[in-house]
Design brief:
Layout (H helix, E strand, L loop, with lengths): L1 E4 L2 E4 L4 E7 L14 H13 L4 E5 L12 H18 L4 E4 L3 H9 L4 E4 L8 H6 L4 E5 L17 H18 L7 E4 L8 H9 L2 H4 L6 E3 L4 H7 L7 H13 L4 E4 L2 H13 L1
Helix pairs in contact: 1-2, 2-3, 9-10
């Protein structure tokens, strides 16, 4: 399967890695590491040389408890990095944003994918994407980043998240977004307890029945930390193990910080 990301192909014939490039001061794992534009550009190029098939730039932290930033702040962080990477590399560049105004601006600047934790529920978001040719990832998030970990509850997390994604797919298609541009993400860690996350991972193949590529982001997340009892900086091995399990259960895009290590693991899975 090949997804057209605004004119740049993303080949999903085998599982691929999406490199995380946060240009924020406060993201949970790498906040501040690439806040400088030149460092962010250098990191993006390195991730591609390490094997990333797509790079995901984020200008607003959506970690639990994160405070929102202004549209202008987000654009000031994202656009300088996006514009250089679009000009210098061949792979699609994604932007992780939940705001319609940011979506419109980054699409104009050459972004090939919108990675939306809010599944195009911001007013104007569906229209911003439908008027373009970019791919879009629809993710499930309980509540919002400020409150999503305040005692999230589900009667059946797998079924409820499945139903939510089905509804968002219908909304996207009704607005004229071709289903061949859609990617789904169950949203590990976004309003879920450890038990919810483990249920999702154990039953990930259920989401493949919706008929869309699955993107999974498990890298360095609190669920790994809770299992291992280690800080974010020491979650590499657990993150790679979770990535392998996700691919075995149908994930086609693994969003991660540690690109080279994850690419090696996925090459072994693909060979087998």
């Amino acid at each position: 399967m090949i997804i057209d990301c605004g004119g740049r192909p993303l080949n999903l014939g085998s599982p691929v890695v999406m490199g995380v490039l946060n240009v924020t001061p406060d993201s949970f794992s790498d906040g501040g590491d690439h806040f400088d534009t030149s460092l962010a550009i250098e990191r993006g190029i390195t991730m591609i040389s390490d094997g990333a098939a797509i790079v995901d730039i984020g200008g607003e932290s959506t970690r639990p408890g994160a405070e929102p930033v202004s549209i202008q702040q987000e654009l000031d962080r994202v656009l300088p990095v996006l514009e250089v990477l679009v000009a210098e590399v061949d792979v699609p560049i994604s932007v992780d944003t939940r705001h319609a105004e940011v979506m419109a601006a980054v699409i104009d600047a050459g972004a090939g994918m919108i990675n939306d934790v809010n599944a195009l529920r911001d007013p104007g978001a569906v229209a911003a994407v439908s008027q373009s040719s970019v791919a879009v990832c629809l993710m499930h998030m309980h509540a919002n980043p400020e409150t999503m970990q305040d005692n999230p509850q589900y009667s059946d997390p797998v079924q409820e998240i499945y139903d939510f994604l089905a509804v968002r797919v219908s909304a996207a298609e009704a607005a004229g977004i071709d289903r061949r541009r859609l990617i789904l993400d169950p949203g590990f860690g976004f309003g879920k307890t450890l038990n919810h996350n483990l249920q999702l991972l154990a039953n990930l193949e259920r989401f493949s029945t919706l008929g869309f590529p699955l993107l999974v982001g498990l890298s360095r997340k609190s669920m790994i930390g809770e299992i291992l009892g280690v800080p974010a900086s020491e979650r590499l091995y657990g993150s790679v193990a979770a990535a392998v399990l996700a691919v075995e259960r149908g994930a086609q895009i693994i969003r991660c910080h540690d690109v080279a290590e994850t690419c090696q693991a996925l090459k072994v899975v693909a060979a087998i």
